[in-house]
Every structure is written in structure tokens, then in C-alpha cells.
From TrEMBL, chains A, B:
NCBIfam families reported for this sequence: hypE
Taxonomic classification: Bacteria, Bacillati, Actinomycetota, Actinomycetes, Streptosporangiales
Organism, scientific name: Actinomadura luzonensis
Name of the molecule in the record: Hydrogenase expression/formation protein HypE
PANTHER family, sorted: CARBAMOYL DEHYDRATASE HYPE, HYDROGENASE ISOENZYMES FORMATION PROTEIN HYPE
Superkingdom of the organism of origin: Bacteria
Domain PurM-like N-terminal residue range list: 50-161
Family per similarity comment: Belongs to the HypE family.
Database matches in Gene3D superfamilies: PurM-like C-terminal domain, PurM-like, N-terminal domain
Amino acid sequence: MSTGFDPLAATCPAPLTEDERVLLGHGSGGRLMAELLADLTPRLGAPATEDAALVTTGAPEIVVSTDGFVVTPRFFPGGDIGSLAVHGTVNDLAMRGAVPVALTLAYIVEEGLPLEELRRVTASVAAAARACDVPVVTGDTKVVGRGAADGLYVTTTGVGVRLPGAHVSAAGGRPGDAVLLSGPIGLHGVTILSTREGLGFETGIASDSRPLHRLAAAMITAGSCGVHALRDPTRGGLSAALNELAAASGVGVELDEPAVPVPPEVAAACDLLGLDPLHVANEGCLVAFVDPARAGAVLSAMRARPEGAQATRIGTLVAGHPGRVIMRTLVGSTRVVDLLVGEQLPRIC
Amino acid sequence: MSTGFDPLAATCPAPLTEDERVLLGHGSGGRLMAELLADLTPRLGAPATEDAALVTTGAPEIVVSTDGFVVTPRFFPGGDIGSLAVHGTVNDLAMRGAVPVALTLAYIVEEGLPLEELRRVTASVAAAARACDVPVVTGDTKVVGRGAADGLYVTTTGVGVRLPGAHVSAAGGRPGDAVLLSGPIGLHGVTILSTREGLGFETGIASDSRPLHRLAAAMITAGSCGVHALRDPTRGGLSAALNELAAASGVGVELDEPAVPVPPEVAAACDLLGLDPLHVANEGCLVAFVDPARAGAVLSAMRARPEGAQATRIGTLVAGHPGRVIMRTLVGSTRVVDLLVGEQLPRIC
């Protein structure tokens, strides 16, 4: 999630006071983060509803997105900070219907980092970028003293060109739209947490980190103007992504709990750790609001690609309770799926 | 300076060994940094001669640049980390003959930073961007635990559109070109160092941090194809900028020492601290290689703008000693102006 999005602007968060300090929870993708962004983004005069911005330079339409990566550990099952940075940025572009055309790479390095590690990350950035068919065109390296960073931070920025016919936006959802999810949730967050804390869950699972631009393009081709909104549920998980889109679109979301794919290993880890899988970060799936008349065609197109092989419909948009996400549980009751207040899993991406 | 540039690729630096670690000097803009970049950039397959990259998306030509800012202190006479980030990125675009059309902003924040400070920096980013006529279109905020960063790091990326008729490139210099400098050198570096260490020099001076895109545009309008190369001498100072351009252009540079404008406060501070003003960072001046037939017109255009009021000719390009910068001193002798090996002033930008 980027500072671009401010789900609480409409609901008037309590103003942050003068003497408050930044908390880990301010980086969570949850309610504290939303409050921080509601405080900061008006100072920039920036539109605050997307992770990637459209830049008007004439045709073609240019889309830009930026993301910092501070994940710890830097190497984990399924990826590393380098591949994660490339995928995260490519995916933010893809969620605006854009094909990536260039990436930039900025390192902040702590003095004393083994050069071999910097080489490994750089090789991983290069390999991931090649696999996405996007060049790394420029970069920057800053070195800070020991103790002034934790090894390595990576900031990537992507420049993309919008696909003709792509009209996706966070505000695009309409009542009646199908809510589609491209694959199982919770894998990235549980993998990072387990690897970092030595919990052992990571032996059975790996991060889902991967690029989604080809999947998004296939969906837009199959669904045309019927693909109304796309979002990759990263920090804050599926819950944050759906709450953000619901708020921006002014619609309610009704989820069908049994339809939400949670891998058994993720469910087991979340049970043990007291986490809600809906709040756990993902780096390789997307959620979409799609016109019901095109939902079948879009779902077929998703399933035809490896990264969408397990795509499924998880719910429907409704006119009632705009901005709220409601889950119909297995036993037929309903519950509100809300943003977390603070930090569940710091430094997950 | 960004990782885009690798002045030593042609001169075969000693390969870095397996067990080496990143040193502060690897971020210096000097020879150690050049060696690190020579090691890393081939892994990215990135062209390695500019701070900003041209992206081919059709017309108009898009230019992209990224830079991380880790300056300490974050607030200093003449600016702060926010305005510095905006100016630095706008200037990297300007050095490719591009007008900025969009900025992105990524924060890495240490837990515990006073929110008021984050607000001040954000307001400063916004004010600097407005003054440059460029919007901040998207951003990202990551929070890391106490001790995992030093307060706040800022990474900005700029997207620009190249001016019609701009043919500037690092490799554009030709023997006979005039070497023009837009203003006095050393102000930024001495201000930061003096403020950080409490040396007291900063009472008389301030950082020269400011945008140079309007100056660059005026030069290109006045000089047309005669403006061959532009560079802002940031990390590593005028020495690094000239060495980089000389290497990329395959020409020698002859500087005239009395013509290089060093403010008395900078000279005094450098004398006392054992620094060479040619190695001290700047954030508000540029150096240009210009066709001698257009140099007069370009110099007039520079002097007509406040940021170029003190523009002057400091030397000439020669066919001899390609890649080397030679200074004719006051007493008529010559000396080689080389890259520093390691770190002179860490965290200067």
C-alpha cells in the first residue's frame, strides 16, 4: 500500500496531536496508517486514492508508482527484498491497467553490509525485472553509518503505459459487481513472520511474490470496460484492500467466507498466532470488482494463466453499507471485516 | 550522483573481493563508489552514464530519475531533507534537458520520529514541488523499528518530458567546448558539515539547494544543439562531475583555477578542515560543455536568471588527456583534479 490511498478521508479520523510520534503501527496498512496519511497527504495536494498515479503527458497515458521495501529477513522462501521490490512495483502499475516500461532502483545501505549480499540482491532485481520484461533504467546508492539502517532498504519506482481500454480505478466499483480473487491469501505474511521468528511454518509454504501485470492484462482483454477496479492486497491484507476499494467506490462488499481460499498452512499458523488471514499481507494475488455480465469471461481468462489458476469469486458489491466490508460466515452469521488499528506484522515488505 | 554513472568502466577497477563489506566511502561519489557501481550495474544490464534515464514510450520523450536522501541534519540553513529531495530529483531531470511533470515520494521512517517533524518535511516537499511547478503524484511510507533507521530517509523519483531540441548527454562533450559553471561551489557541503558538527561556518552561508530546470531550459533555448552536456556537481563535487563527463565524452578538461568561484567562507572552511572545494557537494549549480560558438549566448541566458547570475566560464575541453581533468593554477603550474578515493563528507544529501 502506498501513501496514495487515504480510506479515512471521508470518515474524519481524529486529528493527530502535536506531540505524537511515529509508531510501528503507522506503517501497518491499517487504521493508524490511514490516519497518518490523512494527516500528510493533504499537505502534498496529492490525489489520495491509488497506489499508482496517472501522469498526463499526452498519449500514451503514463502511470507511475513508488514503493519502499524494508522487509526482514531480506531472503525468504519464495523471494528476497530485490524480487519483492520489482514485483511490488510492477503490480502497483498493473492495478492501474498499465504495462511496465521502466523501473528505477534506489538503495540505502548500512555500512558493513557484505558486498556479496548487495550483489545477490542486485542480481535478483535484475532477474525479476527481466522476467517482467521491464528494464531497470537508473538508480541511486546511499551509504549510511553502522546502526543508521538495518542492512539494506530498497525503493523502486515504476513507469508504465496504460493499456488501451483499461478503465480500472479504485473508485470504479458498482453495486452488483462480482468480487474476484486471483489466488490463495496469507502466504507472504506467514512466510516472512515464520522465517523471521523461526516458527517453522515456512517449511511447507513460500511467499506468493510474483508479477501480476500479465494476469491483469488478460483480465482487461477478456473483460474490457467491465473490469472496474483492481487491487493487490499487500500490507493490511485482503481486508485493507477491500475496505479501501469499498470506500473509494462508495459501495459495500459482501464476502462469502467459505469462498475465500486460505491454504491450510496459513490457517494453522494464523490460528496459533492469533492472526486473521484477511489481515495478512500478500504479494502475488489481486482482487477485482467486475461487471457481473463479464465476470465469467474474466474468471476464465484468469484461470488460463498460472498466477490465476486458483482464481475464484469471493463476493458481491452491494449498495447498502457503503464503505463497509461484511463477511457471511460458514455458520450463516455476518461480521464486519475492518481495518486493523495498529501493527500486526511489521516489516513484511 | 546516481548509480547510473560508472566512470571507471573504461579503466578496469580492481575487482571487489568476495568478503568485502560496504564502507561509508562507497557512498562518496568518489573512486570507491565508482568501483561499487562498476561491480553492480553490469548485473542490472543498465546503461551506466547518466543520472536520469530516457524511456522510450513514443513521443514525447520521457526521462526518469531517482535519488535517495539521507542527509543529516535534516534541517539546515538553506533547506531541509524535503526540499533537497525535490531539488535533487528535478535537477537530475534538468541535466537531461527534461522538464519535470511528476514526482513520487517514498519515506522510510524510524519509529519514534516526532510526527511534527514528518509534517514539516512533507510541507517542505510540497512547497518545493509547487515552486518547481511539478505535482507529487504518489508516494509510500514504511516505518521501521527504533534503531533501524536514523529518523527519516526520503527517496524521490522524477518523471520528465524532454525539451524539443535538447540533445544533452554525458557523452556529448567535444574538444574546444567551453566549460561553463552556473554559480559558486562548495556551499551545500560546507553548510551541512558545519551545521552537523557545530563548527559555526554556517552562520555566514547557506546551502545552494534550488531547482535548475528553468536555468537548463533557458540554456538549451539559447544554445540549441550547442549545449552538449550538463551535470549538477552534487556528491563528489565539481571534481566528480567533470571527471564523469570527461570520461563519458572521451575528452580532457582544462580548468582555469582563478575562474572557479569559491566563496570566501567556503575557502576558509575548506582550509581549516583540509577539504578541497572541488570535492565538496553542491545542490544548486550546474556545469555545462557548450559549443564555443554558442557559449556567449548561453552565458548571457544563464546570467539573465537569478540561479545563473554568477555564471562564468571556467575552462575548455581538449583532445589531449581524454578522461582527465587538469587545473591551471594561479601560479601557472598544472595539477590533476582527481576523484577522491573514499568518503570526505558522509550523508551530505
